[in-house]
Amino acid sequence: MEYLQSNLKKLKNVFWRHPDRLFALRSTISMGVLAIPFIVAGKPFFGVTLALGALAGALSETEDHPKGRVKALSITVFSFFISSFAVGLLNNYPWLLGTGFVLSTIVFILLGGLGERYRAITFGSVLVGIYAMLGIEISPAWYWQAVLLPAGALFHGILTLILMYLNPWRLLDEQLAKGFTTLSNYLEKKSMLFPSEEQEQASINKDLALLNISVVNSLEKIKEVLNNYGKELRNAEPLRPYLQRFMLLQSLHERAASSHERHDKLSNEKENLEVMEGFGEMLRQLAYATRQVANNVLTGSSYHHPMALEWISNAIEEKLKHIDANTAQPLVLLHHNLYRSQLSLKYLDDTEEGTAIPRLKRDKRSPIERFRSLLSFKHPRMRYALRLSLSFMIGFILAKSLHLDKGAWVMLTSLFVSQITYSDTRRRLFQRLLGTVTGVVLGALLLHIFTTTAAQVLLMLGSAMAFFYWLKTNYSVAVIFVTTFVISAFNLISKDAGLHILEPRLIATLLGASLSFIVIRFLWPGWQYRRMPELISKAMQKNRAYLQEILREYKETSKDDLAYRIARREAHLADNELALAWNSMRQEPKSKRKLMKHTFTLTYLNHALLSQISALGAHRETHLPGIENMQEIMERVNKVLNEAGCYLQSQTQGNTSNLSPTLLELKQQIVTTESGLKKQQLRLLYNIADSTAKIMQELQETQVDRAVN
C-alpha cells in the first residue's frame, strides 16, 4: 500500500500540477479507448476515424462550467455532423462541395467571433470538414464519417464531463494557477532591474512589456471563466474564494507593474546598492511565493509563505533608516509596495467574513448584436474569414485541377497557418514548414522501427499525446508530432500508406502555407504603422480614464470599485495592444516598418507612464495628502493626455499645452516638502507629468517624420 501510495503521489505530481500534461493524457486516453478495439478487430478505418473525431473534440473544448459544457457539447456534435455529412453527400459534386465549404467557412469564422465558446466549436467544425475530405476516399460508405467523427467527439466530451462533475472547479483552478504563474514570471524578470545599469534596462523593460501581455491576457481569461461559471450558478457563494483569489491576483499585478523611480538612478547611489539588491531578492521571493500559490490552487495543498520574505523586508526597512531621508523617499515607497504584496500573500486564506462578492464586467450585448458588429469589412474577424475562405477556394481549385493526392491537406495547412495578423501568419508559416519537414523525416524513420501493429498504435497515441502537450507552448514541436500521428494512422489503415503520403504531405503543406502567406500579404495585411495613431490615441485616453478613477478613489474609497477595476483593465489592454503592434512590426517587411524607432519609444514611454499611474493606484488606500493646486495640476496632466490621444489622428496639429511649468511647480513642492507620505506622492505625480510631457514631445517628433516620409 505504501508503494502504491508513493507511486500515486508521483503520478499526481507529474500530471495534476501540470494542466497541459493532464489535458494531453485525457485526450490521448479517449482516442486510445476508441481506436484500439477497432484496430484489434481488424477495422482500423473505424478506430482511426473515431480517434480523429475525439482529437477534433479536444481542440473544440470550451472553458465552461459543466452545465455550460453540456450545451457546448451538443452544439459541437451537431455542427460536426452537419460538416461531415455535407462532405459525404456532396463528394460526387466537387465544385458544389468546394463552393459550400468556402461559404460555410465564412459563416463559421464569423460565428466564432461571438465568444471563446463559439470560436473553439466553429474552428473544430471547419477542421472536421477537412478531415472528412481526407477520409472520404477510403470510407466504406459516404455516410460513415458523418457517424464516426461526431461520435468520437461525443465520447471525448462525455469522458471530460464525467471528470468535470467529479471536480467541477478544476477549470477555474487551472486558469487561476496560470495567472499566478505568469505573474511569477513577470516578478522574476523585474527582479533583474534591482540593481541595474541604464543600458541593461531597455532589454529588460522590453521583456517585461511582453510578459505583461501574458499576465493581462490571463486576467482576461480568468474573468471570462468566472463569468461563465456565474451564469450557470443560481447561488454565487461558491465562487467567493475564486473571486477573492482573482482580486488578489489583480492587486499583486498592479503593485508588480508599478514603477516609482528610474531604476538606474536608484542603483547609481552607492548607499542604495544593498537595498536595491534586497529589493531584487524580495521580488524573487515574491515570484517563488506566487508560484507556490499556483501550486496551492491546483493541488489543494497548504500554502507555506516563504519565511525569507518577511526577513528580507525587515532587513530592507532597517537599512532605509540609515539612508538620507531625501534619497530614501522612492525606496520607502517601493518597499511599502512590496511589503503590502508580501502581507497579502502571508494572509492568503485569512479572508474577512462577509466580504462582498465583487462584481465583474460582462458583455450585455445579445448574440445578434455581437454578430452584427462583425459584419463590416473593417472588422479584423471579417477580414480573417474572407482571407481564409479565399485560401480555401484557391487551394481547392488547385487540388482538383492538378489532381493532387490528399489535396485537402492544402486547406488543412491554410487553416492552421492563416492568422488574423500578418506577423502571426508569417510566424506560423515557418513553424508549420519546419515542423512538417522534421515530422516527415522522423515519421519515415519511426515506421521502419515500429513495424508491428501494436507498435504503430503506440506510435500513433504517443504522437497524439506529444501533440496535445506541445500545442499551447511550442507549435513547431506540436506539428512534428501531429505529422508522425498522421503517418502512423494512415499506415494502420493501409500497410505502407504512411510512407506513400510523405511526399503529398510535404507538397500540400508547402502549397497551403504559401497560399496563406500570399493572401494576407496582398489582402488587408494590416500594417502596424497604419494602426499606430489609433492605438496611441486609445492608450492615452485609457491612461487618462485610469488616472481619473485613481484620483476619485483617493478622495473617497468606494465600496464597489468596479469602475476603478474596469479603468485599470482597459488601460492595460490598450498598453498590450500597443506592445503587440510594436512586436508585430518587427516581423513585417522592412519597407513597412515605418517610424519603427518612434513606435518603440512610444510603446516604452506608454508602459512607463502606465507603471507610474499603477504606482499611484497601488497606494490609493493611504489617501492623498493636501497638495497645493492639486486639482489644477491634475487637470493640466489630463488635458495633455487628451491632446496626446488626438494628436496623430488630427489633420492639423495646433499648439499643445506645455507641462514645463507644472513640472517646475511640482519640483519646487518636492524640494520644500519634508520627508514623508506627501513627498512620496509628489514624486509619483512628478513622474506621471514628466512621462506625459515626454510622450507629447515624442508624438511631435513622430509627426514631423511622418510628414517627411
Automatic annotation (TrEMBL):
PANTHER family: INNER MEMBRANE PROTEIN YCCS, P-HYDROXYBENZOIC ACID EFFLUX PUMP SUBUNIT-RELATED. Its main location: membrane. One of its GO terms (cellular component) is plasma membrane. This is Uncharacterized protein. It comes from Maribellus luteus. The chain crosses the membrane at residues 72-89, 95-113, 120-136, 142-166, 437-469, 475-494, 506-524. Pfam families: FUSC-like, FUSC_2. Keywords: Cell membrane, Membrane, Transmembrane, Transmembrane helix. It is found in: Cell membrane. It comes from the Bacteria. Belongs to the YccS/YhfK family.
